[in-house]
Structures are given as C-alpha cells and as structure tokens.
Amino acid sequence: MSFSRAIKIAPSILAADFANFGAECRAVEDQGADWIHVDVMDGHFVTNITFGPATCAAIRPHVRGVMDVHLMIAPVDPYIEGFAKAGADIITAHMEAGPHVHRTLQAIRATGAKAGLALNPGTGLDGVENLLDLLDLVCVMTVNPGFGGQAFIDMSDKVRRLRALIGPRPIHIEIDGGMTPDTAPLMARAGADVLVAGSAVFKGGSVVDPTPYGTNIRAIRTAAEAATGTVV
Ligand code: DX5
Ligand code: ZN
C-alpha cells in the first residue's frame, strides 16, 4: 500500500446487499472503487450490530485492493488480532472507545496492519497530536456512527485543522458519513483524501446491474477532484 493524497473513494458495504458481500465487493471494485470500507458495529459502542472477523475473512478473497475496517466497538483490543488475521489492511478504532487508545494503536501496528483513529463529530483534535507517530489514517466522522444514510454534519473546520496538524506526514484523512457529490467537495477542499460513501454509491444499482455504482463513484470523485484542483 503506497501512500498518496489522491482522492480515493471507499464504498461502505453497510449499504450493500448483506446476502451478497463477495459479489458486491467485486462489483464496486470493477466500477472504480479504490478501497472497500467495512463497518463493524457491536450493539454496545453504537446501537446497531453488523458483523465480525469471520465475515471480514469471508469477504477478503473478493477484495483485490485495500480492505479498510472501521471498528465501532468497545472494547477494541481483544478483537484486533482477529480482524488482522481476517486480512484487514487498515484497522480503525475510535478515540471514544476507551481510555487507552495509544495502546490500541500500538497493538494494531504490531499486527502489521495500518492504524487508523476515528473521531466522532463531538470529539476535538486535542488528543491527536500525541498519537501522530502511531497513525496511518484519521477518520473524521461527519455523522454520529451507527447507521448509514444519515445527514452530513459539516466538519470542514476540523478537517482543515487536522490537515495542518498532519503536515507532511503520510497520514490519510478519511471522511465517513453523508458523502455525496454535493458534500464531498467541501471535505476534499479542506484536506481529505479518502471519502467513504455507502448510500450514495450503492443507490440505484445491484450486482445484476452494477453500472449505477460506477456512475455514482465517478460523480463523487469528479466533484471532489474539481474541488482540490486535480485534473480529472
Ligand atoms: C456510519 C458508518 C458509515 C456509513 C456511511 O456509522 O461508519 O461508514 O456506512 O454511510 P452513508 O454514506 O450512507 O452515510
Ligand atoms: Zn465507517
């Protein structure tokens, strides 16, 4: 996984057909997805429940590129090895999931996976500075986690300050929640490079007719790249 700040679109399989994850991952990758974003929810840290390491392991052979695993679970540490063995390339834990996030990030890196830190909309950047050396990605939540299809909460100011804090370090800024061709440009302009999108990617398509996935991915990417000045 080489580092680049080019815009990456990461469809969240939370909005895919749960009976068809393998085919859905292949379909969105064929249609231009850069990463596959996997939302793990435990019914405790967030109210919703999705799936665990066994499902991630089953999905892995169907993902050619990066498998980006977002853990909305607490505690995190007992499950890190399981998700790493399931083939996660990036494992992201929440700042709010416990008092020992530094240890959690160390444990993620120790598995060989890249380490990500997610920040809820109500969480500031205060704790991030002391963690920079352990980070490969910061995920700025633009919804309160738990469900797909929620309204975007503008975190432009936080993203701009985070981008300045990161400076030249190879740390991705990922945005998660409510990403559409209308909202993605705001985040790209503020400094984000990974855009997670569930509903806005999977709407209108299916594994039988995946071309809308491609249309949707291109619409988000084109809008975001235009905002950063990247030639499209
Ligand atoms: C929210 C999840 C998101 C979600 C995004 O808890 O972490 O990844 O699936 O879904 P949309 O794009 O529908 O807001
Ligand atoms: Zn997510």
Low-confidence stretches: none
CATH class: Alpha Beta
Largest sheet: 8 strands, parallel
Strand content range: 15-25%
Bound molecule kinds, no repeats: D-xylitol-5-phosphate, zinc ion
Q: What's the order of the H and E elements?
A: EHEHEHEHEEHEHEHH
CATH superfamily: Aldolase class I
- Estimated structural class: alpha/beta
Please identify, by name, the CATH architecture. Alpha-Beta Barrel
Rg over alpha carbons? 16 Å
Number of helices: 8
- Mean pLDDT across all amino acids: 97
How many strands?
A: 8
Q: How far from one another are the termini? A: 23 Å
Number of domains: 1
Instruction: Estimate the helix proportion, in percent.
Output: 25-40%
CATH topology: TIM Barrel
> Which strand order spans the largest sheet, edge to edge or round the barrel?
1-8-7-6-5-4-3-2
Task: Please state the overall shape, judged from the principal axes of the Cα atoms.
Answer: globular
Which helices and strands, and how do they pair?
Layout: E1 8-11, H1 21-30, E2 35-41, H2 53-59, E3 66-72, H3 80-85, E4 90-94, H4 101-110, E5 114-119, E6 137-141, H5 156-166, E7 172-176, H6 184-190, E8 194-197, H7 199-202, H8 211-228
Parallel strand pairs: 1-8, 2-3, 3-4, 4-5, 5-6, 6-7, 7-8
Helix pairs in contact: 5-6, 6-8
The chain binds D-xylitol-5-phosphate and zinc ion.
